[in-house]
Amino acid sequence: MENNMVMAKQTGVFKYTGKLGKTVSYTLNGKKVTRTIGEVDLEKMRTAPQYAETRKNQSEFAVATKAGQIFRQTMKHMTQGYTDYKYPMDVMSVMINTSRADDTQPKGYKQLNNGLRNPEAQMAFRRLNIYSKKSCRHFKGSLMQTTSDPMVYKLNRHLLWDKANDGDKKTVRLGYLHIDFEGCKATYEPSLSITCTRHETIQQSKHTLPTSNEEMAPWTFLIIQVWREGDVYEPARMMFMSVLDVIENRIGYSQGSENANNNTLHRDSLAKSGNHVAKDAIRKAVFYHDYGECVRSYIYFPSNNS
């Protein structure tokens, strides 16, 4: 097949291959040829109608890149030295799909805070593999499970000891990753630490999540870690880390509560989309912070059909 492209042929004594200035040289059909490198008019890229779809894709990619960076950097003090080269790419993929899940905005203007309301987007974060030793992969989705109370989780302690050579003492750590993707803000807050030993007789235990002391962002990721405690033979190290749950937060003022006043921060934490949520009700966990005192209550909003 004939090549109809017009290119310059190298005829001089000194021939080269590769890029030189605005030209590139390579071998084509056994001959050294040189061509100029095409340039994109940046002004046209920003304004021309034919590049509208390109601009939308660039905007979507930029939002996902920034969000992925915030997600990873906020937990870098825990993940450094554990995650592999696939981790940033996996986070990026989840962020792009979460952005696309926003059905309230057109392409190019979609927001991650809106896309996270999609149950499939939340499930993608729970499936995200932050770090796991091969012997601990079965922890995901089974080590800690939801209960009928949205703030209480059941820990299946016996699953920690499936292997004979992974230590005699482990600690399960839970933390809150508060993120405002559009505001580009994130904080990590340790919340609960549970110590388990190999020869304990208890199989399961229930644990209530403590009230957060941080100002709520639109979303909170509940992060779970499993650490093997050190001994004289081996130092402590993390064995497992993942997103346990995704919680949407709403800030407002409580109505009808004796604690409600202008100085009270009312935090609504929407019920998680796990299997413990009844189809005929929306459950909200409401936090009140009044002069340093933390009071937790639960408000139930039954549907019209009940």
Give the SSE map:
Blueprint (H helix, E strand, L loop, with lengths): L7 E2 L8 E3 L2 E6 L2 E6 L5 H6 L4 H23 L1 H4 L6 H15 L11 H4 L3 H9 L3 E2 L11 E3 L5 E5 L12 E12 L4 E13 L6 E5 L10 E10 L8 E16 L12 E6 L10 E10 L2 E10 L4
Antiparallel strand pairs: 1-4, 2-3, 3-4, 5-12, 6-7, 7-10, 8-9, 8-11, 11-12, 12-13, 13-14, 14-15
Description:
By secondary structure, the protein is α+β, with helices and mostly antiparallel strands. It has two domains: 1-39, no CATH class; 47-302, no CATH class. The protein is 20% helix and 36% strand. The chain is built from six helices and 15 strands. The protein has helices at residues 42-47, 52-74, 76-79, 86-100, 112-115, 119-127, and strands at 8-9, 18-20, 23-28, 31-36, 131-132, 144-146, 152-156, 169-180, 185-197, 204-208, 219-228, 237-252, 265-270, 281-290, 293-302. The strands form three sheets. Strands 5, 8, 9, 11, 12, 13, 14 and 15 form an eight-stranded antiparallel beta sheet that branches. A four-stranded antiparallel beta sheet has the order 1-4-3-2, with no helix packed on it. It has a three-stranded antiparallel beta sheet with strand order 6-7-10, with no helix packed on it. The protein is extended and about 85 Å long. The model is unreliable at 1-6 and 252-306 (pLDDT under 50).
